[in-house]
Specification:
Elements: H1 2-26, H2 29-69, H3 72-104, H4 117-124, H5 132-139, H6 144-149, H7 153-170, H8 175-196, H9 199-214, H10 218-248, H11 251-258, H12 260-269, H13 276-286, H14 290-303, H15 306-322, H16 329-342, H17 352-363, H18 371-403
Helix pairs in contact: 1-9, 1-12, 2-7, 2-8, 2-9, 2-14, 3-10, 3-14, 3-15, 3-16, 3-18, 4-18, 10-15, 10-18, 12-18, 13-14, 14-18, 15-16, 15-17, 15-18
Length: about 425
């Protein structure tokens, strides 16, 4: 079943690109616009189906995980190890993007005439100038129901931690509630299996829409920019997997096999949220205990988006290069630290990192309209950075499990 799903997604990717290209080459402009808009709905349906189960799954699994950890001291120890990994991985990711863009100067190859101004207008409506007040409001929930309705994972995590710690401290009295949440979490994971059957259809719709609208000729303008970005992603994968082999040993190979399907879905849909439930299931099969996975993985989705972090410095500095703006190293390091702060809690949905890039450019006097320069190629960049986010979070969860002595032999079960 697992291999069948992987094959179906791969076939859907190829068919999506072929159909999109045929439409782009042979249809009239108005037909292409209508086709892209309508076929994209297949991808939208899949993403929305997944998003309906994200909030209840994060809440129930995190509360159960914290309650199973036992006490506040254990929660603090495990959380501290996780944050150590998250901060280190984020800094490395940002530095990889910064070093690469300074060495190869990909921004100097960007064609200023290829800006996607229509896409920029859509992004401009989603961002605002960074301030400490807005950051606090984004992190601390005013209503758990509002946070769940809008899938604000970081806010849900904050509330779940308080709820889980309180439940753990109540001991036997809270056990029926924890048991109920555990059952709900397993029911939701069962739903995941049903939803994942729709993944190939969603992948087909997403890729067909992009290729029909933009065509394959987009790579002729952005081949060098895209190539250097993929090179950066490859460097990041080498670093992450090398650390993984150092900590996990031979188990690292098994981990990569277990997360192959989530990686492929994330890559093809450009949404790390879309694989959160499936990734949870696969990490438990790999050997991570439920209490660790349900605590670390939701935190990772808020604090540990390695691919997105790397792209933020890469894209921001490339835009500056495209406009001929020189940024001293000191200013670049300041930007790196700002991105470390502003990026926490960004949603695992398409183009979330571009919103951070847009705000950062404005803050450092880089023309924010420069984001329109990289929008045409962004979908393909997003595929790689989203897959990297999934790898980073799977690795973080597995490493913390190893550090806690909670990593068991992997189990094989039918999916």
């Amino acid at each position: 079943m697992k291999n069948k799903l992987t094959l179906s997604i791969l076939i859907a990717m190829v068919l999506g690109i072929v159909v999109g290209y045929l439409v782009h080459q042979n249809a009239a402009p108005e037909t292409i616009t209508a086709f892209s808009k309508n076929i994209k709905l297949l991808g939208t349906i899949f993403i929305r189906l997944v998003k309906t189960i994200i909030a209840p799954l994060v809440f129930t699994t995190l509360v159960v995980g914290i309650a199973k950890l036992g006490d506040l001291k254990t929660v603090g120890r495990v959380g501290g190890k996780a944050m150590l990994w998250f901060i280190s991985a984020s800094l490395v990711s940002l530095l990889v993007g910064m070093v690469l863009v300074n060495f190869f100067k990909p921004g100097s190859y960007i064609d200023l005439s290829q800006a996607d101004t229509a896409g920029l207008k859509d992004l401009m409506g989603k961002t605002s100038e960074f301030s400490l007040q807005k950051f606090i409001e984004h992190v601390v929930p005013s209503s758990v129901f509002e946070a769940m309705a809008t899938n604000e994972i970081l806010q849900i995590v904050i509330f779940s931690i308080f709820f889980g710690v309180a439940a753990a401290n109540l001991g036997e009295y809270s056990k029926p509630v924890i048991k109920a949440f555990d059952i709900i979490a397993h029911i939701i994971l069962k739903i995941v299996g049903y939803v994942m059957n729709f993944a190939p259809v969603g992948v087909f719709g997403t890729l067909a829409a992009v290729v029909a609208d933009k065509g394959l000729g987009i790579f002729s303008f952005y081949f060098i920019y895209f190539g250097y970005f993929v090179m950066g992603i490859a460097c990041l994968w080498i670093i992450l997997t090398s650390v993984g082999y150092f900590v996990l040993g031979k188990k690292m190979t098994s981990l990569l096999k277990h997360i192959a399907d989530p990686l492929l879905v994330a890559f093809s849909t450009t949404s790390s949220e879309a694989v959160f439930p499936k990734l949870t299931e696969e990490l438990e099969r790999f050997g991570c205990k439920n209490k660790i996975v349900s605590f670390i993985l939701p935190l990772g989705y808020s604090f540990n988006l390695d691919g997105s972090m790397m792209y933020m410095t890469f894209a921001s500095l490339a835009i500056a290069q495209a406009y001929g703006i020189h940024m001293p190293l000191g200013e670049q390091f300041t930007m790196l630290l700002v991105l470390m702060l502003t990026s926490k809690g960004i949603a695992g949905v398409p183009r979330a990192s571009l919103i951070i890039v847009l705000a950062t450019c404005a803050m450092f006097k880089i023309p924010p309209e420069g984001v329109a320069l990289i929008l045409p190629i962004d979908h393909f960049c997003d595929m790689f950075r989203t897959g990297t986010n999934v790898l980073g979070n799977a690795l973080a969860t597995s490493v913390v499990s190893k550090w806690e002595g909670e990593l068991q032999e992997s189990t094989i079960a039918n999916s």
